């Protein structure tokens, strides 16, 4: 069993155990509730109106107390006491994968490096004799390598019905590989991994990574572990759609077909803003403790809130109009400041479900990697320079990791000058020229707020305008077909799947 | 001087005093910074990569320390010591208004009541002899009554160039009134006011209010203070656009013309979700303390984060593309998890600027009032029943405020059933029939994300379809005219102003 958040022995297994041993959570909630009723009656016995209730905060306080207790249990009794009993369900996503261990250092786009690193992966189907039928699937922000169930992990994967014998990505024909990205927490090297240099958790001494760093790490797996010279296809949606382009950009001769769904060629400031709010909310949870929470209570409240904000950006208004409308969770109750409308309880549950399932630091670093994504020529040139500098510095005799802490508090220069869209587009065109001769399928979804459809149109248009003989196909799902927004690739498999199948087999 | 957040004597005046007496904030930041560098070097001296820096958290910690000190100063020396020296600049918004004191109780749409209440207001222009030229301006969520400068407060108002002699709302012709809404913190009764029943801050014993409650309170001012039988117009944008419709709905014979800009006839679940995340983030700040922070350090971090999220919903992607693009605040620095791209420092500043300028509880209650807005027939009928029950209960001999705390922890019923858009639209049509014979100008902005343009189209369409002889005008600003999103009414006065002027004078 391996848990990404708390090292080898999971706080969550402690939690699961407590839940199994009785109705502790219910008891705790009742205690907190009773205390609060007493306090508030003392406080407001003579007010004009009754004190509002805050069931959502009672719940979080009870959870915090329970996580604290589980933690105390962990510290007092030692890890072995938690290993008895059945595996908690979440462990399914952290078992049943293989790990590629690369002992060679990797140098990063922003100047850091990893002396060695792990990439967790799973495969489906069989590699043919000339190793020409491999498809590399790239994941979105928080997904594991478990795209589909397999003998060592029977739990449905995140693209369960998209991949398989006779499915859109047909494992009777193709050998499919999916990895957990560099920076993730499901088996690949990430902030919750130990730094071999000092055997401490990386935490926020983990260097800033980019999407291009992720694909360079994946390429080592593809070439070293499988001896694959050329992928049949690089396929991904969301951040996976960034990676599929980035893989082609980094290794244009090592991939035949590129599929980018609900992705972009460079992150837009509005998407950056949306991710920024999630990161700031998470970092403001005092349990985050500047990234040093391993072995302590994790920032579960910050994670819950960040996920709620993210969920708003993953779906669309019309979907929620149909699904929730203005219905309240319980019409008989007085309106409340805690979740009240059905759409609020939905968000609350989405946050609650996620908050202990994923490592907070992984979320921060990968979210930041998405912001930094830009296949424009200037950005890619700078990255190359910094990577080379890091490598030269490492190979020189007096290597000292460069300090990221400036001697004085950082001051925003904040020189706001209007950007020039034409210049910026020309820079992107120059950046993408390198791969414009290849075969692309770009898919966009009109109801997507996070990666608006004009970003997918932009990819296709810029590639086409290069006139380098590429085969650029563009496919768009209108609001008549999907109102699922950014999550369409997980929810409208049929509409996404048909063009993908056709493109892969052509 | 009056501060809404901390009662009569402001914590902020303590802060201003500290800032005035020296470079205390800078000193504090340097101290925090030095401590952090020391801690992190101890922690990671041998790691592969340097520890990331968190200047944004250093800043918040320094601010927290300073607010704590100011608070200690406040408690030790007593309020009088803070009254020396010039007025801090924020005090401009809490002076120079009149207060209408209503001694009659008001009963609320969700069953609570106020035994008495205050409405702060300002006026411009002169009321004519037959009292027929009054225009009531309704504000958005966080605005004060200070829509425009006037002799008692020379600071520019939030609609400074929209109102005035010869302006779009011409004070040579009209008598303009603007109030601070019920629930606000700029002079009107809100959660930071004292409950006359026990002389304690209302805090979260403040009852849930609605937009319709707000306009019923305003109407007392209009009729009692000014003896106005009929307003020439009810005008507002954003939540003000809700109020202008609500005023007409509540008192159809007491208003001649209705202007609703970037408003809606009922809140959409997506807008509810966007406000939900802001409320939950704010309520998760431990300084919020379930609303009981008056006289303590206020939840400034939660407020900052809530405002950052709100700011994302107030503007649009294309505006930020042009304004910030993918520019970073300081290209020479390594990318950071703290604000880094220019759009991030913009959001950070927007949050920072707001976080002590507005009362956190006012934000929560008014944000909730917006969620609850629904002029559909079912909702309005229920509200009437609850209001009457509250009044009957109050007038009965054994009046006890109804408890809002259920005996057992609240459990979401969470019965998700698809809504029926036709039914829902029919309900809205039935609700709006009551006012469909009147004169309306509805303005929508295509780039608005928070109040999407189809909501303004809906108002106009539903009113027109009623065929009750109303004069329903609809005016829409496309993305060719404004990319300022929801904030267009504050930023494109020319395009909003011309149709408003014409409508008011017709």
From TrEMBL, chains A, B:
<dbReference type="InterPro" id="IPR000073">
    <property type="entry name" value="AB_hydrolase_1"/>
</dbReference>
<dbReference type="Pfam" id="PF00561">
    <property type="entry name" value="Abhydrolase_1"/>
</dbReference>
<dbReference type="GO" id="GO:0009092">
    <property type="term" value="P:homoserine metabolic process"/>
</dbReference>
<feature type="region of interest" description="Disordered">
    <location>
        <begin position="394"/>
        <end position="423"/>
    </location>
</feature>
<comment type="similarity">
    <text>Belongs to the AB hydrolase superfamily. MetX family.</text>
</comment>
<dbReference type="GO" id="GO:0004414">
    <property type="term" value="F:homoserine O-acetyltransferase activity"/>
</dbReference>
<feature type="domain" description="AB hydrolase-1">
    <location>
        <begin position="134"/>
        <end position="453"/>
    </location>
</feature>
<dbReference type="InterPro" id="IPR008220">
    <property type="entry name" value="HAT_MetX-like"/>
</dbReference>
<dbReference type="GO" id="GO:0009001">
    <property type="term" value="F:serine O-acetyltransferase activity"/>
</dbReference>
<dbReference type="GO" id="GO:0009086">
    <property type="term" value="P:methionine biosynthetic process"/>
</dbReference>
<dbReference type="GO" id="GO:0006535">
    <property type="term" value="P:cysteine biosynthetic process from serine"/>
</dbReference>
<protein>
    <submittedName>
        <fullName>Piso0_002808 protein</fullName>
    </submittedName>
</protein>
<dbReference type="InterPro" id="IPR029058">
    <property type="entry name" value="AB_hydrolase_fold"/>
</dbReference>
<dbReference type="GO" id="GO:0005739">
    <property type="term" value="C:mitochondrion"/>
</dbReference>
């Amino acid at each position: 069993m391996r848990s990404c958040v708390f090292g080898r022995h999971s706080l969550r297994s402690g939690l699961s155990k407590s839940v199994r041993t009785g109705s502790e959570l219910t008891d705790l909630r009742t205690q907190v509730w009773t205390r609060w009723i007493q306090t508030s009656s003392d406080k407001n016995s003579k007010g004009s109106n009754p004190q509002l209730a805050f069931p959502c905060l009672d719940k979080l306080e009870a959870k915090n107390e329970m996580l604290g207790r589980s933690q105390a249990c962990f510290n007092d009794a030692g890890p072995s006491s938690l290993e008895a009993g059945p595996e908690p369900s979440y462990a399914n996503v952290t078992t049943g994968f293989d790990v590629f261990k690369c002992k060679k250092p990797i140098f990063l786009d922003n100047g850091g490096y990893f002396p060695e690193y792990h990439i967790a992966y799973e495969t489906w189907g069989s590699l043919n004799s000339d190793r020409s039928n491999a498809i590399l699937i790239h994941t979105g922000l928080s997904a594991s390598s478990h795209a589909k169930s397999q003998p060592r992990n029977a739990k449905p994967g995140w693209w369960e019905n998209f991949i398989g014998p006779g499915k859109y990505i047909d494992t009777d024909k193709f050998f499919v590989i999916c990895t957990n990205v560099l920076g993730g927490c499901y088996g690949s090297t990430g902030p919750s991994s130990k730094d071999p240099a000092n055997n401490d958790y990386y935490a926020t001494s983990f260097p800033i990574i980019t999407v291009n760093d992720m694909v360079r790490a994946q390429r080592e797996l593809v070439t070293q572990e499988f001896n694959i010279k050329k992928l049949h296809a690089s396929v991904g949606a969301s951040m996976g759609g960034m990676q599929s382009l980035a893989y082609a950009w980094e290794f244009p001769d090592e991939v035949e077909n590129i599929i980018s769904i609900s992705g972009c060629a460079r992150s837009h400031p509005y998407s950056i803003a949306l991710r920024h709010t999630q990161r700031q909310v998470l970092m403001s949870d005092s349990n985050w403790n500047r990234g040093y929470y391993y072995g302590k209570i994790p920032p579960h409240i910050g994670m819950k809130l960040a996920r709620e904000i993210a969920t708003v950006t993953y779906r669309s208004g019309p979907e929620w109009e149909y699904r929730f409308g203005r219905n309240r969770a319980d019409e008989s109750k007085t309106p409340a400041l805690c979740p009240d409308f059905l759409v609020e309880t939905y968000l609350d549950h989405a946050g609650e479900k996620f908050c202990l399932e994923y490592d907070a630091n992984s979320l921060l670093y990968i979210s930041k990697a998405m912001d930094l994504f830009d296949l424009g020529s200037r950005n890619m040139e700078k990255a190359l320079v910094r990577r080379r500098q890091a490598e030269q510095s490492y190979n020189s005799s007096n290597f000292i990791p460069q300090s990221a802490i400036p001697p004085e508090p950082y001051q925003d220069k904040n020189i706001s000058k209007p950007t020039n869209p034409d210049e910026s587009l020309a820079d992107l065109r120059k950046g993408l020229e390198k791969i414009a001769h290849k075969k692309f399928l770009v898919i966009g979804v009109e109801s997507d707020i996070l990666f608006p459809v004009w970003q997918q149109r932009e990819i296709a248009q810029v590639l086409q305008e290069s006139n380098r003989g590429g085969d650029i196909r563009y496919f768009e799902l209108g609001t008549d077909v999907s109102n699922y927004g950014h999550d369409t690739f997980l929810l409208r498999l049929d509409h996404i799947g048909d063009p993908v199948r056709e493109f892969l087999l052509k």
